[in-house]
Structure to design on (412 residues):
């Protein structure tokens, strides 16, 4: 069953119609729409295709699923289930407090503040905070930990309301949300509206160059509408009077850009250096993406062959991480309950439900040592080190993991 969606005519950033197809993943279920095993009826699927804009270089999907469908009452993603992400967020906050000289007279606003995973560190340092998140579950979890949190989707309308209420943010943090927004210009214009004149915007987005280099096709799903290079992000923000003055490349989530924008233009050497790297690699032209689909097909071929070979030898295989990326990987490769016995996940909000499309049962992580599958497909490969460090008992008993990208392999 195909669900309700729209298709963009022009680029989500610049409006250009000069779009070239990079990859067509076909009809896919919503990656975070975990299934209640008692539910009846078909799961809606939606076409999923990735395109390159020749005018502003933004990579994006053409299909738009309504945000209230993507991030509704059942949205199961809670950021605090990853220690690595908490550590990453804590150091980000420590840096921002020092960089911006924040104190009890300041205000830090986070858009997509989830369960307060990041704002808690500003609050603990005595900096007043305000969270904004449309997902009821995580937002309520944030309030329970004492983080003031507004519901709703951020954009110019909410920004204007906040300004009328006296909000002027010294720092706006927007991590792993820009890519999720269907109306890029409304979102960035809202940031410019709510930001104090001498404020700083800190944005984290998956880096499209790392996505291509790491064949990270599984990070493509309907929540992720855009896939940014430095160039495409720079052009989007500059359109709204926010200038890219600094950046960092980070390893989290398979490769992330941390971008810092301000209302005055003062670009650091790091900005010019990465832009030059992108130009040197041709990342501002379609040719950079032309063979990505072929490489993705190679991962599908090799991963299914690897798993089928293990199964034909009589091995048992499970999976780790009921991640959104895991839904894309399983549904695109066709690996499901025919090959995998179950998937485990530490997020108790996910346990007991089924992975979208493939119907794989989500269990607690202790099921690995209880049942000792011979192999575990690591769907949350971006946290492989953290997860494998927790699974020493499973490894010591002879268990092994399969890492799927950039090329399928067994570890240790
Ligand atoms: O943009 C997004 C990225 C940043 O995070 C969101 N759209 C949703 C989410 O995508 P994801 O679900 O692919 O992200 P994760 O954080 O890679 O998913 C990891 C999964 O693994 C979570 O369900 C939590 C789980 N986990 C676990 O069970 N044990 C994670 C860790 C670190 C663990 O030790």
């Amino acid at each position: 069953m195909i669900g309700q969606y729209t298709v963009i005519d022009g680029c989500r950033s610049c409006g250009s119609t000069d779009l070239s197809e990079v990859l067509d993943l076909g009809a896919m279920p919503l990656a975070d729409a975990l299934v209640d095993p008692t539910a009846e009826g078909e799961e809606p699927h939606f076409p999923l295709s990735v395109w390159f804009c020749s005018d502003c270089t933004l990579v994006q999907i053409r299909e738009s699923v309504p945000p209230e469908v993507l991030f509704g009452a059942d949205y199961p993603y809670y950021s605090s289930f990853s220690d690595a992400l908490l550590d990453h967020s804590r150091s980000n906050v420590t840096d921002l407090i020092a960089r911006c000289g924040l104190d009890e007279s300041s205000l830090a606003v986070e858009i997509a503040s989830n369960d307060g995973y990041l704002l808690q560190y500003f609050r603990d340092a005595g900096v007043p905070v305000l969270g904004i998140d449309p997902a009821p579950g995580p937002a309520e979890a944030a309030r329970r930990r004492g983080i003031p949190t507004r519901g709703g989707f951020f954009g110019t309308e909410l920004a204007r309301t906040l300004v009328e209420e006296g909000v002027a943010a010294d720092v706006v943090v927007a991590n792993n949300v820009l890519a999720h927004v269907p109306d890029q210009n409304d979102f960035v214009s809202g940031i410019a509206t709510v930001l104090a004149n001498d404020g700083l915007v800190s944005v984290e987005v998956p880096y499209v160059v790392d996505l291509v280099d790491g064949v990270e096709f599984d990070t493509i799903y309907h929540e992720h509408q855009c896939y940014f290079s430095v160039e495409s992000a720079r052009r989007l923000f500059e359109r709204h009077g926010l200038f890219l003055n600094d950046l960092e490349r980070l390893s989290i989530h398979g490769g992330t850009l941390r971008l810092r924008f301000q209302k005055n233009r003062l670009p650091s050497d790091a900005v010019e250096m990465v832009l030059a790297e992108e130009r040197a690699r041709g990342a501002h032209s379609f040719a950079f993406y032309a063979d990505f689909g072929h490489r993705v097909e190679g991962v599908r071929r090799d991963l299914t062959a690897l798993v089928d070979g293990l199964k034909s030898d009589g091995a048992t295989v499970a999976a780790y991480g009921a991640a959104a990326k895991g839904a894309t990987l399983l549904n695109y490769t066709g690996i499901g309950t025919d090959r995998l016995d179950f998937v485990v996940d530490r997020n108790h909000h996910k346990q007991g439900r089924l992975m979208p499309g493939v119907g794989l049962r989500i269990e607690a992580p202790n099921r690995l040592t209880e049942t000792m599958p011979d192999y575990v497909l690591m769907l949350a490969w971006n946290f492989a080190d953290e997860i494998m460090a927790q699974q020493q008992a499973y490894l010591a008993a002879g268990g092994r993991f399969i890492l799927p990208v950039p090329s399928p392999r067994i570890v240790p």
In short: The pocket of DWN is lined by residues 77, 81-82, 176, 223, 253, 321-325, 345-347, 350, 380, 382-383, 386-387, 390 (CB under 6 Å). The two ends are 41 Å apart (CA to CA).
